[in-house]
Amino acid sequence: MRQNFLLISLLVLSVSQFASGQIDVAKEGFSIKASDSNYKADFSYSFKLSPVRGLSNKTIQPRINYTPIADSFKKKSGVNISQKSTLQKPTWNIKQPFIEDKQDVSQFNKDYYLGDVKTKSKTIVIKCRDHEYVDGDRIKLMLNDAVIHPNLTLSGDFYSIDVDLKEGFNTVNFIALNEGLSRPNTAQLRVYDEDGKLLASNKWLITTGYKASLIVLKE
């Protein structure tokens, strides 16, 4: 009986302490702190992967697959570039006789007569050029004491000019104004009628101040 009383007493005491403890907690209460909006969690992780290796550790060199040409398709040039060429080098030996630039030009210190022609044409075409060294020879062209061209420089191409003829004799004079870089003054002359027929062809070699003359008779 006594044991039962002690057991009941201990049970009552335990219940009373638990109840007092619950009451104290209820009085004190508890609070939860608000989360910090500026707080940033550290989610960085560092890790290493083990290298992935293939089935073989050998170094592979790239190669180009090709099929060699059969010997039957190979063509031999038959030229040995190490040998000296047997081809002949072209040579030119120009021997054109020029009268200009002679030591003695005194023989050309005189007027030169180019001849005379007859024609029924009202107009003639005079063509002249430097037929030797093109060295700047200049002339004055006159017809019957009238100046047709006061200072004509002769080139390698023919200079052409039309001249109206009067009835009877017509004198065409070519007066040397200089002798260029190579003495004397040289030129080639051709004269055509109005139909293109060649009437005269001649050359002159004169020194400065002298003239070459052509007489044209209009019938």
How would you portray this structure in words?
With 219 residues, the protein is mainly beta. The protein has a domain at 107-218: Lipoxygenase-1, CATH 2.60.60. It is 12% helix and 32% strand. It is built from 1 helix and 9 strands; from the N terminus they run αβββββββββ. The chain has one helix at residues 2-28; strands at residues 112-119, 123-129, 138-143, 146-153, 159-164, 168-176, 185-193, 198-206, 211-218. Strands 1-9-6-3-4 form a 5-stranded mixed beta sheet, with no helix packed on it. The chain has a 4-stranded antiparallel beta sheet with strand order 5-2-7-8, with no helix packed on it. The longest helix has 27 residues, at 2-28. It is elongated and about 180 Å long.
Quick structural overview:
12% of the residues lie in helices and 32% in strands. The chain is mainly beta and 219 residues long.
Order of helices and strands: HEEEEEEEEE
The low-pLDDT segments are 21-26, 52-56, 58-62
Query: Percentage of helical residues?
Result: 10-25%
Query: What strand order characterises the main sheet?
Result: 1-9-6-3-4
Mean pLDDT score: 75
Supply the CATH class of the domain at 107-218.
Answer: Mainly Beta
Strand content: 25-35%
Q: What CATH architecture of the domain at 107-218 do you see?
A: Sandwich
Instruction: Choose one word for the global shape.
Output: elongated
N-C termini distance:
191 Å
Quote the CATH topology of the domain at 107-218. Answer: Lipoxygenase-1
Give Rg in angstroms. 62 Å
- Give the total of beta strands: 9
What oligomerization state is this entry in?
Answer: single chain
**What summary fits the major beta sheet?**
5 strands, mixed
